Amino acid sequence: MKSDPSHQITVLLNKWDEDGTAEEFMNVVYGELRRMARGYIRRQPDGNSFQTTDLIHETYIKLVRNEDRNWQNRAHFFGVAASAMRHILVDHARARHAEKRGGGLDRVSLSETMATVAIQSRQVLDLDDALKRLAELDQRKGEVVELKYFGGLTNEEAAEVLLVSVETVKRDWRFARGWLLRELDPENK
Question: Which of 24, 72, 93, 111 could form a disulfide with 124 if both were Cys (CB 3.0 to 4.6 A apart)?
Answer without folding.
Answer: 93
